[in-house]
Structure formats: structure tokens, C-alpha cells
TrEMBL record:
Signal peptide: none
Sorted UniProt keywords: Disulfide bond, Membrane, Transmembrane, Transmembrane helix
Molecular function via GO: signaling receptor activity
Family annotation (PROSITE patterns): C_TYPE_LECTIN_1, C_TYPE_LECTIN_2
Domain C-type lectin, residue spans: 1-89
SUPFAM superfamilies xrefs: C-type lectin-like
Top-rank taxon, per record: Eukaryota
Protein name as catalogued: C-type lectin domain-containing protein
Source organism of the structure: Nothobranchius furzeri
GO CC annotation: cell surface; plasma membrane
């Protein structure tokens, strides 16, 4: 929705939480976008912080590349223009 963003994981525990909830990849979709993209040859979260462990992604960061999470727990570099599903998060509602 409009009040959500692509998922961001601050540590290994949050990374595992995301990948443990993935459905098998469906026809025409090779993975699920998460909030990681290449900036100046470094993988960064969309909130501007560096990816905790650059080795989580299968390839070094390159301009025009984003990251998909796969149902086999891997993270794959892919063109940001590829068609994929997405994993979003939203802030908890304060009551």
C-alpha cells in the first residue's frame, strides 16, 4: 500500500524472518524485491544504510542492480527493471 516500503533487515535475524515467509516463486516471477539496491558499488538499503553483510548477495554491487530474495534463502542481484514480486513492510500502528 501507499504507507509501506520494501522490506529492510537490520541483522541476520530479520533477514531470516523475511526469507522464512516466502512463498515458492510463481510463474513469470524469479524472486521478490526487497529494499536493497546498488549505490556506488555498495549494496545499500533503501533507507540509506549499508547492507550489514555484503556477502548476503550473490554478486558484487553494480549500478542498475537491485536484490531479490529467493525461496531457497538466497539473495540474487538482478536488474532493477526485471519483473518480480515484492516484500513490503509498514510501521506498526500505535494505539
Amino acid at each position: 500500500g501507499k504507507s509501506s516500503d520494501l522490506a529492510v533487515a537490520a541483522d541476520e535475524q530479520e533477514r531470516n524472518y523475511i526469507v522464512d515467509r516466502l512463498s515458492p516463486v510463481t510463474k513469470g516471477i524469479n524472486g521478490y524485491w526487497i529494499g536493497v539496491r546498488a549505490r556506488n558499488r555498495t549494496w545499500k538499503w533503501i533507507n540509506g544504510t549499508d547492507l550489514f553483510d555484503q556477502g548476503w548477495v550473490d554478486q558484487p554491487a553494480a549500478d542498475g542492480q537491485c536484490v531479490t530474495s529467493l525461496s531457497n534463502r538466497g539473495w540474487r542481484s538482478a536488474s532493477c527493471n526485471d519483473k518480480n514480486g515484492w516484500i513490503c513492510e509498514k510501521k506498526a500502528l500505535l494505539v
